[in-house]
Amino acid sequence: MTNDIDTKFLARCFGLSGLTAIVTGAGSGIGRQAARTLAAAGAEVALLGRREEALKETEQMITRHGGRARSFAVDVTDRQALSEALDAIQESMAPLWALVNNAGVGGRAPLLDVSEAQFDQILGVNTKAALFVATAFAQRLIASALPGRIINICSLAAQSHPLNLAIYGASKAALEHLTRSMAHEWASHGINVNAINPGFIETEINRAMFQTPVGRKMIESLPRQRLGTPEALDGALLLLSSPAGGFITASTLVVDDAQRFGVS
Ligand SMILES: NC(=O)c1ccc[n+]([C@@H]2O[C@H](COP(=O)([O-])OP(=O)(O)OC[C@H]3O[C@@H](n4cnc5c(N)ncnc54)[C@H](OP(=O)(O)O)[C@@H]3O)[C@@H](O)[C@H]2O)c1
Asked: Residues 153-164: what's their mean pLDDT?
């Protein structure tokens, strides 16, 4: 009996059945795990990214366990292709609800060595494309009078200034700033917009770097001498994407295992 009540309560707070969640960068790392988590909460998940095979792997991981997912191979910097993918999602899936704006690129260099091309690439994906994915999603919600949730995956680097990650940090700081502006502008439409600032999570974006002597030293400098796994973001993601998070908007959730006190 208690279990029944708990189950219903949890489904009411965190359930996403009958709703579509879009995850960009869903073919690997944090995006793949986000897609699996949202599918486990009941959402139909639209998987976006450039590598079709990687998306299909995520799709199979979800459908194998009875979840629902569909892949849309798209480069988020291509606004026309993005718009077509969103149209296809709206036509073929459950009503839009959540966007996990996760696609992103890294790039390490001291400021004196940063090229214009590197600057444009990092801000082009992490800031500009993230902005236009969010606006394309919000435009559709607003046109359909639907409420929704946007979660922008920013980074601890937006606030912790790690060496050689200045441009990456700036791209995420800009996205974090835009998060609050989106939340403000779209509040009256019932769209909640929040940021998650993850600390170091071991994925394709940084695995090789953490295997170098410099990377190993960085891990040792962290308060708990450990990196996170993509699952570390599950709780934050579920809170911000679910009915339980209805009064949370324009916030940043730092999920970093206190790494901010150790990163140098
Ligand atoms: N790992 C960390 O420590 C950490 C910490 C803080 C924040 N983050 C952020 O978390 C997000 C996910 O990173 P991750 O660690 O999971 O690394 P990852 O495995 O390299 O994931 C990045 C994803 O972004 C997608 N992507 C990149 N450019 C794209 C484009 N132009 N169009 C569509 N998709 C694109 C990639 O897919 P395709 O190559 O298939 O397109 C890939 O699936 C990023 O925004 C990253 O900045 C990561």
From this structure: 94
Strand partners, 196: 153, 253
Nearest to 140 by CA among 91, 77, 78: 91
- Domains for the chain: give ranges and CATH numbers: 18-254 (3.40.50.720)
Protein residues whose CB sits closer than 6 Å to any atom of ligand 1:
24-25, 27-31, 49-51, 54, 75-77, 102-105, 125, 153, 155, 198, 200-201, 203-206
Q: Does residue 62 register a pLDDT over 60?
A: yes
Give yes or no for a contact between 136 and 101, defined as CB atoms under 8 angstroms apart: no
Cα 225 to Cα 84, 216, 256: the distances in Å are: 44, 9, 12
> Looking at this protein, which amino acid is placed at residue 8?
K
- pLDDT given at position 189: 98
CB–CB of 207/4 below 8 Å? no
Query: At residue 263, does pLDDT exceed 90?
Result: no
Q: To test ligand 1's pocket by mutation, which of 30, 172, 207 has the most ligand atoms within 8 angstroms of CB?
A: 30
